[in-house]
């Protein structure tokens, strides 16, 4: 009778553990889908702004318009090539984001400054592809960017984290925001590393700290 109780006890414990594993798998798949949707939602918004800027440049500065188009094509090539990957090296992401930064700084002129300070050795660590584009686009979408109130975005390493920090000057309304971008990013990284994505809203700055893997 005791052995029978042990058998059923082990059976139910094993089933319970399997149920937990299955729930975790489903939650991870759901989060991955949400993150993929996030990238897809941002792309049309980014494309609209980029094409509007390109249209203005064609009549004003054809050489700059040509450079703008080349950088724009590199951004989309990177997104298409890496959209199925969980990780890329930080160096790969940094090489890509230079194209995006060129587009953003051209679009906003002197109203936007993006600065990078990456410690030696961090380039070999990994990051989820397109993380930087999503966080820079998030800063642009939620903050005022004009000549009177320029936006400064700093991207730097701190320990095993990549920090994206900007001066805080919130827009009153954000038409294209679904308010789920950072939450989806936090949820995805939760399944990839034990270290969480940290979001800090201070009095005059907004910081997102992404764990390097």
What's the arrangement of secondary structure elements?
Layout: H1 2-60, H2 62-82, E1 88-89, H3 90-108, E2 112-117, E3 126-127, H4 131-142, E4 151-158, E5 161-167, H5 181-192, E6 198-201, E7 205-211
Parallel strand pairs: 2-4
Antiparallel strand pairs: 1-3, 4-5, 5-7, 6-7
Helix pairs in contact: 1-2, 1-5, 2-3
Number of helices: 5
What strand order characterises the main sheet? 2-4-5-7-6
Report mean pLDDT, rounded to a whole number.
Answer: 82
Mind summarizing the main beta sheet? 5 strands, mixed
Portion in strands:
15-25%
Low-confidence stretches: none
**Radius of gyration, in angstroms, nearest whole number:** 21 Å
Q: How much helical structure, as a percent, in the residues?
A: 55-70%
What structural class should be given to the helix and strand makeup? alpha+beta
**End-to-end Cα distance:** 51 Å
Query: What general outline do the C-alpha atoms trace?
Result: elongated
Topology as H/E string? HHEHEEHEEHEE
Counting DSSP E segments of at least 2 residues, the number of strands comes to 7
What does this molecule look like?
A 5-stranded mixed β-sheet has the order 2-4-5-7-6, covered by helices on one side. Strands 1-3 form a two-stranded antiparallel ribbon. Helix 2 (62-82) runs antiparallel to helix 3 (90-108). It has helices at 2-60, 62-82, 90-108, 131-142, 181-192; strands spanning 88-89, 112-117, 126-127, 151-158, 161-167, 198-201, 205-211. It is elongated, with a radius of gyration of 21 Å. By secondary structure, the protein is an alpha+beta fold.
